[in-house]
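so my prof wants the structure for this chain in the tokens format not the other one, which i didnt know existed until like an hour ago. anyway here's the sequence
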Amino acid sequence: MPKPPKILLVDDSPLILMVIGQALEKDGFATRRAANAEEAMALLKNESPDLILSDYQMPGTDGFAFRQSLMAIPEYKNIPFMFLTSVTDHAHMIAGISLDAIDYIDKDTPIAFIISKINNYLNSIRERHEHTIRELSSAAMALNLYSVPQETPRINGFEIDFWHKSFENYPGGDFIDAISINNRYTFIILGDVMGKKWGAWFFSFGYLSYIRAAVRLCVSEGDISTKSIMQKINSVIYHDPVVSEVLSTLSLIMIDSENETLSYTGAGDLPLLYFNRTEMKLNMISSSGLLLGISKEGGFDENLFTMQPGDQLMLITDGLIDKETAAGKKTDLNSFIDDVAKHIGKADSFATLKNDGFLSEKAREQIDDCSLIFIQKK
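here's what i got, hopefully its the right format
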């Protein structure tokens, strides 16, 4: 079921907030209400609406100043903005439109017309979005550009599976890869470029290029240390003026199928979830590394361990533990661990996670890309 469009109402009149807010909610919108620009900015820190509907005449920061402050902040400047105000002389209307407001609506306009304008605008955005998704998907397929594998890798002694769901069908910043060097060594990659939609999707390919090159270069020189490889990736990104300002997490695992051992290094990532079959216990394996590109050194470490038959390992991105609440974004790793613990330790754990509704429920709650890599020792 699609999520209701979110509208942020900003008006110093409690009556206007109540009447317009209730009318929008009756028509299927989710609303947040602010009595002034300062309250609106506080709400924006927790969630981003699909549209802002703001009065012009407000005490303190007026509607124009509010709009100007939004335009100065990269995260807020592209949120669609409408003025709903009783000040409708020609000069004010021109000034409002010059601030990239999509409409300037008189408060005397019947509420049904206001809602119709909002619906028409958001529908046109949705149609453009769907058209762009189709075009981009076609281009990506033509250029063979994928940020997740098209098939699961095969590794002797291990079962590898992955699951990925993009946010609102936009390509996003999560990326997954498996690099098989030979019959012995395979590198498993899970990363998340900070940002949303097209920008994050674009930079994910830049990161993947660096990672693939660093892995193959290091291995060709006889270096299979995940810590060493991560340091080389980080060093290149740190000195690249384009991608150094676009931070990313990265989980890097090397599987040695001959010795049946794994090594792991992380950069600003979430802990790995490791189910020990012997102890029947779910543990966390954490890394000390910083986000890629944030520091020249990175502070990376390396975890070496051996999986026994029946042991399971999960790598996840934060889309699986983030959800939107009435108070804003909430990150809850512990609740995710409690929930996922009910499904692991079985021979068909991954199929159960995928098919019994657990992952689909997480996708319905998502506010970001969701990705999971599952590794099991046969």
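also thought this was worth mentioning. The chain has two domains: 6-136, 158-377.
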